[in-house]
Amino acid sequence: MSYGGGYVGNGADAMKIRKYEEQRKKAMEDAEKEKSALASESAKSRIVNFSAGKSEVIENAFKNESVGLQTKAQFAEKRANIERELEEEAAARAKATEAAELKSKDRKRKKAKKEMTAKLSFADDELDEENEDECFLPAAKKAGKFATVGKDPGVQTHFLPDKDREMSERDVREKLKAEFIAQQEEIKKEKLEITFSYWDGGGHRRKIEVLKGDTIGIFLGKARELLSKEFRELRHESTDGLMYIKEDLILPHTATFYDFIVNKVRGKSGPLFHFGVHDDVRLKGGANIEKEDSHAGKIIHRTWYDKNKHIFPASRWEQYDPLRPVESYTIYGGEKGPDRR
């Protein structure tokens, strides 16, 4: 029996040959399927293998796909296809990861919201129960209940920093300061009657009105204007050529009566804050008792003082120094008055 142009034996042999051919064909198909499966698994393993670089993955996949002789166009097309597939798979994987993260965040947010809602609901229930209980409590008991909640009113907190309290205290201080200044300005505008003695070797007492805020220089100018009507020598005398001596102290022209009155300044023989005339503390009994008596201040020429400052009473006079305390004053007969420290 001939088969395929040659002798192949009898009919049984021909059947065996066909059977072998079918088995071979099936084996080849199985091998092709296995090869495709291996290639697919290799591509998957390349995607999962994150430690390998992109170029290495492309080269491995390209080597597995390009088996046998191929043209340049086929070579380039396969390489481009492999790169495109890898990029698509990477983009899909990134998108899936992002979607999973968003889903996880959304799930956590919903869970937190659900827990918060449950807590608020529980708190509302407790508050409702407390309100219901309070409806049946007397007013005093309610106040006592809430008095124990929060800060302890008995704890000292004044030393703790408090911005609102500090601002309030500062405003109060500024208000009190403004009120004090306004009050002192009103005091300076009050009138004051000064009894003085123009001294030219003898005393000539006069009275004049000034303001408490006036300086000694202003007072001397007004006194010169008053005295110049009687004493010709004062008509050509300037204010700087006159001196005012009170309680054995030569008062500076820049000092004000307000300063002496407010500070209750004392001189060597009496107070500087009284400008009326009372009993002479040096001539009346009880010299060891502090008195508020005052002597008439003297207005003299500076030239007269320069000529007679070594003679009593000018020898007792001293320049007023606000920083120098007056310890005591001497009364007539050498005795000392009370300590003025």
From TrEMBL:
It comes from the Eukaryota. Residues 72-133 form a coiled coil. One of its GO terms (cellular component) is nucleus. Pfam families: XAP5. GO terms for biological process: chromatin organization. InterPro entries: FAM50A/XAP5_C, XAP5. Keywords: Coiled coil. The keyword Transport does not apply. Residues 190-330 form the FAM50A/XAP5 C-terminal domain. This is FAM50A/XAP5 C-terminal domain-containing protein. It comes from Micromonas pusilla. The lineage of its organism: Eukaryota, Viridiplantae, Chlorophyta, Mamiellophyceae, Mamiellales.
